[in-house]
Amino acid sequence: MTRAYSISGEDVDAERARVDQNLDQVDISRVVVLDEIELRTTGPRDVRMKILAVSAEHNLAHAALADTVHISELRGGKIYPGNSALGEVTEVGSEVTDFSVGDIAITHCNGQPDRFGFPKTIWAYDTPDSIGWYAEEVVVEDWQIVQAPLDCGLNLWEIAALPLRAPTAYHLWRRAEGIFRLKVPEERCATLNVMGFGGGVSELFLMMAAAKGHNAYFCSGSKERRDALEKFGIIPIDQKVYNRFASRDDSKAFMKEIKRLTGGEGMHLICDMLRGPVFDAGFSAVAREGVIVSAGWQLTREVKFNSAAASIKQITLDHTHYETLYGVGAATELYGSVYKPTIHHEIYPFEDLPRAIVDMQENTQTGIPIIRVAEEMPEAVSHLIP
Ligand SMILES: NC(=O)c1ccc[n+]([C@@H]2O[C@H](COP(=O)([O-])OP(=O)(O)OC[C@H]3O[C@@H](n4cnc5c(N)ncnc54)[C@H](OP(=O)(O)O)[C@@H]3O)[C@@H](O)[C@H]2O)c1
Predict the structure, then answer these.
(1) Which end of the chain has fewer surrounding CB within 10 Å, N or C?
(2) Contact by Cβ (8 Å): 68, 62
(3) Nearest 5 degrees, angle CA 201-CA 207-CA 209?
């Protein structure tokens, strides 16, 4: 038996009933509970891992709130969540060739690639029978892990922040850039204006833009996160100055600032993982031929836009979902050289994972939240612990 977090459909329903279906009042820590699970014995293509650290991800909040789909119910009453982790290989099956005992590996969450490699489902969310990595130990098939780039210059917590967010950002970037370049070749517009709204994925997207010499703008309500990105030459825009686009006047003032910052051009590429009022702000800030990419719907799932205006301005809205396995490998190559994530100042103990999710939901964290799972760390990573 190993300790692992779970979310049960019954607990979700009971908590939603307790707060009269007001999702703003749901206490996620009553739904995400420390449980136990019996791991399967290690098969020929399996790898057993001791989890060292994980990063908290929003899909846990989606699962606990049942605000997108009631995933724990759909999965038969219970899920074991967690799709971003770093661990030590402790056992390998007889047919495993790419990993050995003692290796440090990171996970990816492409749960079921379609014939072009894109995920049909996400591991530990909607992939049938998948057991997540918010656990002390796991058994997974070897295709689900990647060697951790321990020499990339990042510390252990920074590496643990990236397994889900970096491939997502990488995929968003190649889609946004590729679509824009279909319309406007480099010799017509070499330097792009690129904007991302708050959040770890957007931050990494902007790091890609800055690394390629583009003008990158980070529109966030968090001073700590804006300051962290400014150190990489990414220009901050304080979203709270525009009251997170609450009124028409706020949006007009934001538009005026975007025009000022970009000499009237607007943003060629925009990453919006949030939707809601953020979508409208992005739609008004986008340049002609611009591309707005998203893989998230943190604030709302539905968006409404003026299709005629989008056509006339040649705007493309693109929807993505994580990466292919090749893309995961490519994103991992950029750890430390391009991706230098900001980490929340507190590293949470394993027992406090629900508190990390609550803090994430309340938007009080100063960077990506990391949970230390293993008390004792292997020698191979001891020099990477700050
Ligand atoms: N489909 C996929 O493959 C995929 C992969 C990763 C993530 N996602 C989804 O994408 C979303 C973002 O993920 P993430 O990991 O980038 O997020 P994150 O690092 O946890 O950051 C979330 C951000 O949301 C912003 N925020 C919170 N409340 C807000 C509000 N009321 N108005 C405007 N901004 C608000 C905050 O930005 P401020 O700095 O402005 O406060 C915060 O930094 C989540 O819904 C997640 O599930 C999807």
Answers:
(1) C
(2) yes
(3) 110
pLDDT at 188: 98
In tens, the pLDDT along 174-186 reads 999 999 999 999 9
Reply yes or no on whether the pLDDT at 68 is more than 90.
Answer: no
- The Å distance, Cα 199 to ligand 1 centre, comes to 4
Task: Give Dmax (Cα) for the chain.
Answer: 64
Mode of pairing for the β-strands spanning 32-37 and 2-8: antiparallel
Residue-level pLDDT at 219: 98
Query: For ligand 1, is residue 127 a contact (CB within 6 Å)?
Result: no
Neighbours of 359 (CB within 10 A): 18
Whole-number Å distance, alpha carbon 253 to ligand 1 midpoint, is 23
Nearest CA among 76, 75, 97, 101 for reference residue 88: 101
For residue 280, which of 265, 268, 295, 270 has the smallest C-alpha distance? Answer: 270
Under DSSP, the state recorded for 229 is: H
CA of 313 to the centre of ligand 1 (A): 27
Query: Which domains does the chain show, CATH number per domain?
Result: 2-164+339-382 (3.90.180.10), 167-319 (3.40.50.720)
Tokens of 198: 């708050």
pLDDT in tens, 226-261: 999 999 999 999 999 999 999 999 999 999 999 999
DSSP bridge partners of 307: none
Per the rule left: phi > 0, alpha: psi between -120 and 50, beta: everything else, 289 is left
